[in-house]
Structures are given as C-alpha cells and as structure tokens.
Specification:
35% helix; 4-stranded parallel beta sheet; 5-stranded parallel beta sheet; alpha/beta
Length: 330
Amino acid sequence: MDESRIASDASTPTESGSRLHHRHLLGLRTWSADEIRLVLDTARQFRDVLDRPIRRVPTLRGVTVVNLFFEPSTRTRISFELAEKRLSADTVNFSAAISSVTKGETLKDTAQNIEAMRIDMVVIRHSSPGAPQFLTQCVDAVVINAGDGAHEHPTQGLLDLLTISDRFETLQGLNVSIIGDITHSRVVRSDLYGLTRLGANVTLCSPPTLIPPGIERLSDGGRVRTVSRLDEALEGCDVAIALRIQLERQGKTLFPSLREYHETFGIRTEHLERHPDLLVMHPGPVNRGVELESEVVDHERAIILNQVTNGVAVRMAVLYLLSGHGEEVA
C-alpha cells in the first residue's frame, strides 16, 4: 500500500501490525484473534470516512465485485453494495430469481460464466452450507461468504463484534447471551467463534428443541454454556443478542406458538428494568412481539441500528483487506 498516498488524501485506513492469513472470508472458525482485530481496526477507520461530506474513496477503483445472492436479503445485500460503491469498485448484482438458475444452470456454471467476464471478487449468499467453499474451487476470484445456509455469516459476526467493542474497552471476560433459534442460525456460529476468540463468555439460551447437541464445542477455551431459562441467561449479562425465529427453515413446529415463545424467551421492557446495564442487539429482521417486545426494539439500550451502520464499515474493511490493498495476503 502506498503510504504517501494515504498521507496526501487520507482516503484509506493505515496499516496495522497484523496481516490476513486468508485469501477468502468463508467463516470465522479459522480466523485468528489478530486477524479479527485487524478487520475491526480497519472498519473503525472506514467509519470515519463514512462520516465525511464526501463518502467515497478511490481505493478499489478498477476492481470488479459481483454479488451472487441466491436467497432473499435486504440489509446484507444493500450493505455490501454500499460498501463496494463507497470504495469505488465496479459492482455487478446477480439475483437468482431473474437469472439462468431458473432454467437449471448450476452454481459452478454460473460462477465460471461470471468469472469469464473478468471479475475480481465474489460476494455470495446461498441456502446450502459450504457453497462459498465450493465456489473457491471453481473460480480464481476472492470469495466472501454473505451467509450460507445455517453454517456461518462472518461479516455479521464481525459487525456484531465491532458494535460490542464500541461500548466496552475489552471483550475479555464480557458476558454475552445469545437467545433464540440457535439450530437454524448462521449468525450464532460466527458470533461464537469471534466472541470466544476475543475472550468473551457466551451463554446460549433457547427452547431445547432449538439448540443442537454439542454446540458448546464450537467455542475457544470452553467459554460457552447452554441454558433453557431466559432469566438465567440474563443474570450478569452485559449484552443480549436476540436471534430471529426462522420459521422458513423449520420443517415442523418446534415450540407451541409464537405467543408462548415471546412469553418465555422474548426480551421485554421488564427485563431492561431488572438489568439496568443490559444492551440488546439483533441481526435483523426483527419480529416485533416475538424475539423482542416492540418497546425494546425502540429503546435507547437497543443498539440494533448501530449494527446496521457498522455493517457498511465492516464490509468495506473486508473488501479492502481481501482485495490485497491492505497487508500482504497469503
């Protein structure tokens, strides 16, 4: 990276002592604490760029990024598109609903046809776990996972870490509770890897039918426990992350009703009153009156919109670092 250019126009983040050891972002499972911190530090600097009157930098001028979305998305897709445009990349958007996929074209053929158009990076969301990994075997472009089935959603995990670190000096010893549909959530796995790697303690709270056996083994250093009572999960909790109930992924009803779920596992204003320092997060979209009481969504201690804002900065950081404009990529 040309440091004289940075000094002259202050358009890109400065380098850190860390570097990425990954060419792709497929998940956070194999990412080190230093790599995660590098992304967060870079995102903070890009967040400063987003606060300027002119929120566009020339960093990825000439880089072509294709967004392959095989599932519906609002926040993630728009966030990636904004991040790419803020970095001056050339962006191509792909929607499976209006593509040759509807005619039977495979993921491999789709990707190879797009790569033949000379693209540099691919952002992919797919319903099948492992689709981003498969894509790395089909194309030479850098691959970024925007969510694959119930596997991982790494940029959501990174933006959650950034949002939490904005409020606390360190994540070491912090108590974070993740509440909701653990089985079908891709966010929870990325959050687990990232939070425990940075030293946080994680409590998973869910109906027994919505928590997979042995999920505690995904943690670093045994910092994960599971409980089935909301009061137990919120006791001593610093941050509560509510997860969306994903009825579309459930083959059958795994709890009596949404009303009963809210009564048993929904975070309500009474919980905020009982725990005056508790912060509340949610990856979205929120089902008001299910995971969170509507008043909680709008409460000053709900930092859900902070997550959305941080999403653009984090995705800018990921694109920037993986494009090779940051530290040397192995």
